[in-house]
């Protein structure tokens, strides 16, 4: 078969990424060569492809669900916010500009061509392309110039389904209203709906589904149940507000408590997911000094705005508390932007243009921001274990002392590295946690048999199972192959127009 589908949503975090990944996994099981696609992604969680391109982490996970290598074509435009008003624009895996919302308008038409060329390339290489929308297609203030939702669907003649999150409440109004706010030409491509995160009696939902079909002339292709413990690499910090990975009973006698600082521009916080999968490791995100009191390990994660987030740490009192605890011997790990914050000083004439800024002074390093972003997938060794990782940063750290640690260094109970994904390496993670536990004085033993890659694969299989069991897959296949049905009614605020 050949075809494509757009998975849109009523809101951000409605489940577009999950449904896209589930469809990719299910289609791959059927022997169909499938690829994910997100025309424009706004996310601070990104990853580096094998050929050195930066794309959204969700698309990398979706590619894994499809059983294919990720490429820049799968996410041709990535926006990385550095403040409330400005974002770095990454095109085909390389940063090209820093713009605000008004300045971005000038880029829309050239980016439209890039997006359509990438989608064309994927459709030529794969049997099916599952496209994920961005936010909601009913953001009518952004419809002009849209390249990620109905603008993409119209340009490529893609049928679309709309995903709604019933756990938030108001799902029928959200689904109906999403269609009703679209123009007739956009509505003609909206084929139906998927309801996500349902928990309860199916018979109570059925009358609503019937009325939704009567009001819109469109079916619901399936209702995905609430799945306890389901986790994927999320796109942005909205994912931190919902359930993450549940702590597992300890392998040894004690747990290990990890406090991950959550600054405003936190990026690649998926680094700590591998810690949360370890039995006996309890991971929580914190924003105040008091929450560090009982932590056995403090993690400073990546940041898209290192200097600004360092200022936030100081304003909140977190910086002083981290320094105090570290000097008392409390383990601290800095990753990428967090590693940069641990330096003695930071010279930033690129990201914040703040010049020289004093760091936390916990590691013997000096950081200078370079105009060219480092994007690579390094391999190294630590604790006698091989480590595969990826790097995404402008700040370059010059190490002036301490012990070598991956590409960074260690000084006493403080570690720092620019390598994302290092903790996903099972042998290294266990050795690091054992060292942390000894430094922290905890009777904690890492489990010997936890494989993070296998856990991720198992979760992707769960998504494939949900699609297979709870969606009308025959109808979805027809939609992918034949496009949106002709003659779908136009939905107006008062009901379908006749």
From TrEMBL:
Alphabetical list of SUPFAM superfamilies matching this protein: Class I glutamine amidotransferase-like (SSF52317), P-loop containing nucleoside triphosphate hydrolases (SSF52540)
Keyword match Repressor: no
Pfam families: CbiA (PF01656), GATase_3 (PF07685)
Location of the CobQ/CobB/MinD/ParA nucleotide binding domain: 6-230
Keyword Metal-binding: no
InterPro entries named in the record: Class_I_gatase-like, CobQ/CobB/MinD/ParA_Nub-bd_dom, CobQ_GATase1, CobQ_N, CobQ_synth, GATase_3, P-loop_NTPase
Record pathway: Cofactor biosynthesis; adenosylcobalamin biosynthesis
PROSITE patterns: GATASE_COBBQ, GATASE_TYPE_1
Residue ranges annotated for the CobB/CobQ-like glutamine amidotransferase domain, each copy included: 257-427
Active-site residues, Swiss-Prot/TrEMBL: 336 (nucleophile), 420
Family classification: Belongs to the CobB/CobQ family. CobQ subfamily.
UniProt function note: Catalyzes amidations at positions B, D, E, and G on adenosylcobyrinic A,C-diamide. NH(2) groups are provided by glutamine, and one molecule of ATP is hydrogenolyzed for each amidation.
NCBIfam families, per the entry: cobQ, PRK00784.1
Protein name: Cobyric acid synthase
Native source organism of the sequence: Actinomadura alba
């Amino acid at each position: 078969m050949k075809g494509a589908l757009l998975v849109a949503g009523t809101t951000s975090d409605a489940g577009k990424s999950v449904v896209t990944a589930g469809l990719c996994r299910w289609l791959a099981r059927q022997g169909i060569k499938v690829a994910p696609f997100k025309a424009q992604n706004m996310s601070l969680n990104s990853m580096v492809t094998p050929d050195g391109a930066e794309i959204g982490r969700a698309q990398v996970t979706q590619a894994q669900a499809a059983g294919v290598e990720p490429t820049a074509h799968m996410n041709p435009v990535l926006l990385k916010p550095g403040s409330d008003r400005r974002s770095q624009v990454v095109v085909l895996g390389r940063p090209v500009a820093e713009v605000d919302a008004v300045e971005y308008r000038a880029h829309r038409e050239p980016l439209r061509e890039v997006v359509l060329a990438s989608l064309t390339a994927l459709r030529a290489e794969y049997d099916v392309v599952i496209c994920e929308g961005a936010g909601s297609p009913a953001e009518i203030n952004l419809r002009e110039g849209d390249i990620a939702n109905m603008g993409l669907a119209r340009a490529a003649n893609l049928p679309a389904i709309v995903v709604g999150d019933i756990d938030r409440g108001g799902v029928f109004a959200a689904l109906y209203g999403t269609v009703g706010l679209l123009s007739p030409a956009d509505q003609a491509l909206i084929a139906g709906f998927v309801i996500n995160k349902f928990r309860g009696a199916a018979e109570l939902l059925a009358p609503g589904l019937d009325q939704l079909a009567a009001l819109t002339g469109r079916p619901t292709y399936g209702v995905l149940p609430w799945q306890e413990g389901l986790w994927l690499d999320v796109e942005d910090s909205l994912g931190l507000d919902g359930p993450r990975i549940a702590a597992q009973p300890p392998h040894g006698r004690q747990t290990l408590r990890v406090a991950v600082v959550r600054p405003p521009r936190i990026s690649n916080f998926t680094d700590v997911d591998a810690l949360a999968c370890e039995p006996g490791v309890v991971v929580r995100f914190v924003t105040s000094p008091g929450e560090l009191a009982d932590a056995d390990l403090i993690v400073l994660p990546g940041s898209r705005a290192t200097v600004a987030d360092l200022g936030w740490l100081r304003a909140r009192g977190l910086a002083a508390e981290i320094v105090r605890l570290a000097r008392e011997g409390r383990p601290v790990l800095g990753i990428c932007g967090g590693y940069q914050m641990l330096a003695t000083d930071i010279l930033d004439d690129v990201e914040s243009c703040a010049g020289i800024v004093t760091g936390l002074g916990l590691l013997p390093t000096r950081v200078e921001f370079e105009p060219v972003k480092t994007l690579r997938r390094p391999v190294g060794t630590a604790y006698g274990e091989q480590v595969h990782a990826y790097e995404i940063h402008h700040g370059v750290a010059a190490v002036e002392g301490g012990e070598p640690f991956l590409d960074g260094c260690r000084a006493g109970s403080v570690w720092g590295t620019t390598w994302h994904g290092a903790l996903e390496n099972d042998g290294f993670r266990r050795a690091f946690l054992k060292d942390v536990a000894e430094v922290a004085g905890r009777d904690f033993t890492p489990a010997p048999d936890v494989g993070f890659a296998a856990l991720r694969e198992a979760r992707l299989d769960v998504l494939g199972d949900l699609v297979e069991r709870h969606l009308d897959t025959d109808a979805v296949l027809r939609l992918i192959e034949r496009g949106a049905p002709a003659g779908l009614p136009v939905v107006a605020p008062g009901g379908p127009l006749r």
